[in-house]
Amino acid sequence: MVGLANFRSIFGIFLAVLAAGKxxxxxxxxxxxxxxxxxxxxxxxxxxxxxxxxRQLVPAVRQPIKLPVIVDFPVVAKSAFxxxxxxxGGEAMVMTTLIPESKERMVLSDLPVIDLSGKRDKVRKLMVxxxxxxxxFKVINHGVPNEIIDNVEKESKEFFSLPxxxxxxxxxxxxLGYGSKKIGFNGDTGDLEYxxxxxxxxxxxxxxxxxxxxxxxxxxxxxxxxxxxxxELACDLLELLGEGLGLxxxxxxxxxxxxSQNDSLIRLNHYPSxxxxxxxxxxxxxxxxxxxxxxxxxxxxxxxxxxxxxSNNVEGLQIQSPLDGNVxxxxxxxxxxxxxxxxxxxxxxxxxxxxxxxxxxxVTAQKSRLSTMFFVAPxxxxxxxxxxxxxxxxxxxxxxxxxxxxxxxxxxxxxLASNRLELFKLDCNKESKxxxx
Length: 437
Fold this sequence. Notes:
The chain is of the alpha+beta class. The protein folds into two domains: 2-106, no CATH class; 113-436, B-lactam Antibiotic, Isopenicillin N Synthase, Chain (Jelly Rolls), CATH 2.60.120.330. 32% of the residues lie in helices and 24% in strands. The chain contains twelve helices and 19 strands. It has helices at residues 2-26, 44-53, 120-133, 146-160, 164-167, 201-208, 216-244, 254-258, 277-284, 344-349, 404-412, 430-436, and strands spanning 64-66, 75-78, 81-88, 91-98, 105-106, 113-115, 136-140, 177-183, 188-198, 265-271, 295-300, 306-311, 317-321, 324-330, 338-342, 359-362, 369-376, 383-384, 402-403. β6 (113-115), α3 and β7 form a beta-alpha-beta unit. α3 packs across α7, α4 packs across α7 (216-244) and α6 runs antiparallel to α7. 36% of the residues are buried.
């Protein structure tokens, strides 16, 4: 009886809080959909419930929240709740509204930014930390000339503006060449068109030489110059990571790229613009249950060692939080920087210490998005396996050895969103004990 009385008392308090919240909403402009929310518009029960879900205890009234990143669009977050923010000098006034149909949510978060002109010891430590926590980081002061970057964007824009019949002369994708909508061979699609080449001059030229309205020699030359610089940057990054991990040979990772038979790729993506504000909102609010939104490139991880990405000044890239698969982090575009993400092969070689980040591209703007990716891949015969230095009593051997050719075959047999690396995980620690002897 005492327990029942306590329950009734607690339940009565809860109902009183609900009533108070309803009264506040009814007396505010929020209930009528008017203007920006004010302090008295905050729904105390919903606000409290949202923060409890996220294991945070905060006041159930509106507070200015310092944004960890600078954005130039209204902050929109999707979860069991929708968060709508209004920028005010680097602060966001946030309210919560129940959105029951989805578990996904957007979260603004500080993503690592690494200045490559800094002290080497500091840079490599920051890179290792970024790869462990996010599998993703941005590099600035990278040394790649703006002229080369601008030339690639100009040539890409000119190619994708050609008539479809002309562009198709560089295809069909097998998987190299020109492609549109289809991603891979297993039914995945996206709202994009692309060019995919092996990262060498011959592969590039052979695919575009038949396009009568395009200067094949210039296009090939521009991309080849870009590829050379990407290889240099990638080797520098991989050697910094080797040093940061304390590997005996800092060139352990870069050797794969320096192999003349490496399977590295260069990819140019073009995401058409949205046609309306409604399309833009739908795309940004895309969830697994929302089939009407526009997905540029669906959720996936890159199978290679490392990816270097650069895009024009249009948003769209999102990375998944390694801690919560329902959390997506929008990446602020920066045409002057490169974005680096860890691939499956690097996760395997570090025995899971580095995270192969899952990411996607959403069509969110009324301006088309252009992006260029350089994928660092080993030769087909190369063996990928956890490095001995990465296997310890605390971090037992997680993955079996495989060749890059074997992994590619597996990749082409699966859907885009599949977690391929899981198929190469070990079920026991016998190999780990043997390796540590």
